[in-house]
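Worked example 2:
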Amino acid sequence: MNFRISFFLSVLFILSFQFVEAQTENFLKPLDTLNKKRQNTVVITEAALASVTLIGLNQIWYADYPKSNFHFINDNDEWLQMDKIGHLYSAYHLGRFGAEALNWSGASKKNQLIYGAGVGFAFLTAVEVLDGYSAEWGASSGDLIANATGTALYVSQELLWNEQRITPKFSFHTTQYANKRSDKLGSSLNEQILKDYNGQTYWLSVNLYSFAKETKIPKWLNVAFGYGADGMLSGNNKNENFVLAQNPENFRQIYLSFDVDLAKINTKSHFLKTIFSVFNTIKIPAPTLEYTANKGLKGHLFYF
């Protein structure tokens, strides 16, 4: 009797799982023609998320600092430009997600590129406006240019190739510098991922098959070119007595590695395609060559 009950429950579970999976697949499948209900869902959801995020930023990040008249600052020489590349990366992927969301609703390619891909630039520009009214910071022309470049990188590839052959990616490892300057570089792992530029690496991951489709190169195989920096305790190490006392040696890092383009993995599952799309923002650990002007060439068995 127990065996029969267990068997029945197992069959019921499998059938239920298959039903849920089938419903999920049907829901995640992009449409060929415009579905206004889906399109409205995308627009309302994006507007709500952006509004809540901006309100949250204003209350949590800016509220404790004095306001000022709107102004610009020149911070282009700070953090060895790591923050600028971060803006490019963010604008690209926010725009990509926006375009893919409109594609899910069946919107035209034109609307995907104009309204979807523009989401990243619009949102990050709003953040710059908040910076511009803060006496502690200020709007940055360099940030705005980086935001526009990230959006342009996505849109230009869609117009030129109708696919993304070059994808910005991100990796992170903890460093010794966060303990020395936790107020600037973060005290927790979550903060350090955002603030400790010494541990961040930004990549341009290039899909090889896309440029040589007549070959037998695996469709998912990428070569990745990375950029990082090290030895930074502040945005500009020349301006703070504390930093000068620590006497860090800051330098740029250039990387060459392999990567996987998750978007090029063949699967009929729209659930997996969605998961792959989200995680295609991250560079996988792989054997890597690193070059710095002061230390020359160095190899890593696995680098992240």
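Confidence is low (pLDDT under 50) at residues 1-21. The longest strand covers residues 221-230.
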